[in-house]
Design goal:
about 100 residues, alpha/beta, 4 strands, about 30% strand
């Protein structure tokens, strides 16, 4: 069964930086996020990508993002085991590396 994603009010053109994060689903970017990305106009946008995992690490998530966002300007990718807070030193370092903060 394929279910449609319910639209939500978000206009990526209003932002200088877009952060896309996904749990790792069977080694890949989650299907709902893949579907959402395909429906957006993100060419030329600066996009940071991240994935969380339960032990598998990066897997194919970065290469999935690279294919899905071929027309975007990609920053570095963050891979996190389990959950992480936006105030964690790992996240803060990632954001600094990409010139966001």
């Amino acid at each position: 069964i394929v279910r449609e994603i319910k639209p939500f009010a978000f206009d990526p053109s209003r932002y200088d930086v877009i952060v896309l994060a996904t749990p790792t689903w069977w080694h890949h970017v989650s299907a709902p996020l893949q579907t959402w990305i395909r429906g957006q106009k993100l060419d030329g946008r600066f996009v940071l990508t991240a994935n969380t995992h339960g032990g598998g690490g990066l897997m194919h998530t970065r290469e999935d993002f690279e294919k899905l966002l071929a027309g975007s300007r990609l920053g570095t990718h963050l891979t996190v085991f389990g959950a992480v807070s936006e105030t964690s030193s790992e996240v803060q370092s990632w954001l600094k590396t990409n010139g966001v903060i």
